[in-house]
Amino acid sequence: MSEDAEVILFTDGACSGNPGPGGWAYLLRHVASGKMKKASGGENPSTNNRMELMAVIEGLKALSRSTSVRVVTDSQYVCKGMTEWVPGWRANDWRRGKNGKDGPVKNVELWQALVKVCEEHAVTFEHVYGHSGHPENEECDEMAVAAAREARCSG
Q1: Buried-state track 20-50, b at ≥16 Cβ within 10 A, e below 16
Q2: Pairing between strand 20-30 and 36-46?
Q3: Mean pLDDT rounded to a whole number for the chain
């Protein structure tokens, strides 16, 4: 965990059914000033993993300049992907398994977009347990669930 992060990005994704209507949400906090920015959105149909990735992508895209960012998420998929899996996927031309024998990476376009936006910043990832009383994670969850509900109605 980077204690010298200039910005903390809290994220969450939600899906009603998998696939089904999905929502993503983020909350950005500037550490020194305490200023916050939040946003959410959704798509129908989607999956929970897609929404978890979208939350981080959209949060990082909302930054106006290169900065040090600590991403706080309840998604092991995102954390492990960015800290463990991506180097191997890139080496295997975005394919899974030894020598890519397990087929293409799922959600490859989102992983590639996340890698690209991370390259613009100094990003670290921190996993928190969902639904465990973490205030910002709970707020992101509420926003993502509301966005999924809205995606259901408009889809």
Answers
A1: bbbbbbbbbbeeeeeeeebbbbbbbebbbbb
A2: antiparallel
A3: 94
Here the tokens at position 87 are 């180097």
Q: Which residues are catalytic?
A: 12-13, 52, 74, 131, 141
| Distance separating alpha carbons of residues 2 and 6, to the nearest angstrom | 9
What size, in residues, is the chain? 155
Task: Match 């706080």 to its residue by tokens.
Answer: 72
- For residue 3, the model assigns a pLDDT of 54
> In the block, which residue shows the tokens 């998998």?
18
The architecture that CATH gives domain 7-154 is 2-Layer Sandwich (3.30)
Structural domain boundaries of the chain?
Answer: 7-154
Query: What are the pLDDT digits (tens) for 18-58?
Result: 999 999 999 999 999 999 999 999 999 999 999 999 999 99
